[in-house]
């Protein structure tokens, strides 16, 4: 069974174990597996992994059918594997690993960004200029790793099975000069090129749209599949960390917010015109 990434395998196993336990005692289940209730809680939230043997013990305790156990156990093995992003240690803080892991396996990505071009759409020089402004004062090596990581992430849009990307970007991002005029122009040209891809739905939210549904800031919705079950994760970043939302009501709220933003944004054709206008003004 392929979950797409170790992080998604961990989340898939976590969801299955949590749902399988149902209303049964967490204390009793943890005791059967030989660890604490706190550890079981972290496992069910996808914050840590457990051995395939412990996962099997829990599933047997919950009364899961033998054939189902055999179909789920590969998730426990996959969750222990190293993710490709772990080679970019200087660019992936602990709180960001979950995002990269789920984005790697996502079949659909929806993102709203009011200030900058989203990371998955950034050119190397644009990304470098932003990363260098990080107040944590990253080293030159960390900056380069961050640039390389963002470029690797773009393979999600250009690989053999590319994800669908829906991106709404404020018109302000088109005029914010990041990295100087040359870098600015190259980034705008890159957006025009990406907007031609059939799996990319890029829309600009123009100044003329006035008020909109996401005045509180940026967010990303990641849709992924584990064991033929659909899941969604909402990512909201703040200075030095991030919030991950999985509850159905929270996901629905952000889904409706994104739909509202798309409705208020320019059409894909007009978006290209807006980018071209910004590009001409940057010349």
What does this 3D model show about the protein?
This is DUF5753 domain-containing protein. InterPro entries: Cro/C1-type_HTH, DUF5753, Lambda_DNA-bd_dom_sf. Pfam families: DUF5753, HTH_31. The protein has 283 residues and is an alpha/beta fold. It has helices at 6-21, 26-33, 37-44, 52-61, 66-78, 94-105, 124-132, 140-153, 155-158, 171-175, 181-194, 248-264, 268-282; strands at residues 108-113, 164-170, 200-205, 219-226, 229-238, 241-245. The protein has 2 domains: 6-78, lambda repressor-like DNA-binding domains (434 Repressor (Amino-terminal Domain)), CATH 1.10.260.40; 85-282, Endonuclease, Chain A (2-Layer Sandwich). Helices cover 51% and strands 15% of the residues. A 6-stranded mixed β-sheet has the order 3-2-1-4-5-6, sandwiched between helices. Strand 5 and strand 6 form a beta hairpin. The termini are far apart. The mean pLDDT is 92.
Summary keywords:
single chain; 283 residues; alpha/beta; 434 Repressor (Amino-terminal Domain); Endonuclease, Chain A; 2 domains; 15% strand; elongated
Which secondary structure elements does this structure contain, and how are they paired or packed?
Layout: H1 6-21, H2 26-33, H3 37-44, H4 52-61, H5 66-78, H6 94-105, E1 108-113, H7 124-132, H8 140-153, H9 155-158, E2 164-170, H10 171-175, H11 181-194, E3 200-205, E4 219-226, E5 229-238, E6 241-245, H12 248-264, H13 268-282
Parallel strand pairs: 1-2, 2-3
Antiparallel strand pairs: 1-4, 4-5, 5-6
Helix pairs in contact: 1-5, 2-3, 2-4, 4-5, 7-8, 11-13
Protein name: DUF5753 domain-containing protein
Pfam families: DUF5753 (PF19054), HTH_31 (PF13560)
Organism: Streptomonospora arabica
